[in-house]
Design brief:
By secondary structure, the chain is an alpha+beta fold. It contains nine helices and four strands; from the N terminus they run βαβαββααααααα. Bound molecules: glutathione. The site of glutathione has 8 residues, from loops.
Length: 244
């Protein structure tokens, strides 16, 4: 039976972290809101979230349906899927290490979102542009170096070598780090210029994920929607700046 992925249509958004894992594994899945028909489309997603009878309803997308089970939150979905898709370590302790890394990515993604929506998600970007500029300057100067520097150190200190963020094989956290770098390159091209000299191991990980056959095929496919100013990673030139 196919997994069912529920996420807002038209953007990569947070759903993309789950999509990359499903695509890498060649798993059968249905992107519910990108299809029409019974049990498909945005209506089907809203029906679950707004249900007054369904058990364990999710607060927000993305969520995954596997049979009757509904699993929400990117990191939790990946923690669930990882072993099934062969994208998590066999060792239970290491699976929790990977989960910790994924949760750090979750925190970072929330901060990426807050660069363009620092005041309220319900307001337009244009209504919080000045605050977004101030927030982005701190994000670029403080937070990108802190988070990317952290991932670089974790790669360097991986006892199995720096090709993967944890263990000796690809995990869903490696795929998510690829997406984080892709997103930052789109949103903040000036701030990210020369990133590969500052974070060479992370850059190598990014490039190696992009070259994985299933990922490379997916990136060229119509299923990979382009980044845009509707998603989490948004390019507004006025928020971007060179770093010294
Ligand atoms: N921690 C959740 C965040 C989920 C989330 O914020 N989803 C967004 C779309 S990317 C949403 O629809 N939020 C609705 C809201 O916060 O009101 C995750 O990692 O999946």
């Amino acid at each position: 039976m196919s997994y069912e992925l529920y996420y807002w249509d038209g953007i990569q958004g947070r759903g993309e972290f789950v999509r990359l894992a499903l695509e890498e594994a060649g798993a059968a899945y249905i992107d519910i809101t990108r299809q029409s028909g019974p049990g498909r489309g945005i209506g089907a997603m809203m029906a679950i979230m707004q249900s007054h009878s369904e058990a364990h309803i999710p607060f927000a997308p993305p969520f995954l349906k596997d049979g009757d089970l509904i699993v929400s939150h990117v990191a939790n979905i990946l923690f669930y899927l990882g072993p099934k898709l062969g994208l998590a370590p066999d060792d239970e302790g290491l699976r929790h290490v990977v989960n910790g890394l994924q949760l750090t990515i979750t925190d970072f993604v929330a901060e990426v979102h807050d660069t363009h929506h620092p005041i309220a998600t319900s307001l337009y970007y244009e209504d919080q542009k000045e605050e977004a500029k101030a927030r982005s300057a701190y994000f670029i100067n403080d937070r990108i170096p802190k988070f990317l520097g952290y991932f670089e150190r974790v790669l360097q200190q991986n006892p199995h070598g720096p090709k993967h963020i944890a263990g000796d094989a690809v995990t869903y956290a490696d795929l998510s780090l690829f997406q984080v770098v892709e997103g930052l390159l789109y949103a903040f091209p000036k701030a990210m210029s020369n990133y590969s000299s500052r974070y060479p191991l992370l850059a190598a990980l990014h490039d190696s994920v992009a070259q994985r056959p299933n990922i490379a095929r997916y990136l060229k496919s119509e299923r990979r929607l382009p980044f845009s100013t509707e998603g989490i990673f948004r390019h507004y030139p006025e928020l971007d700046m060179e770093v010294p």
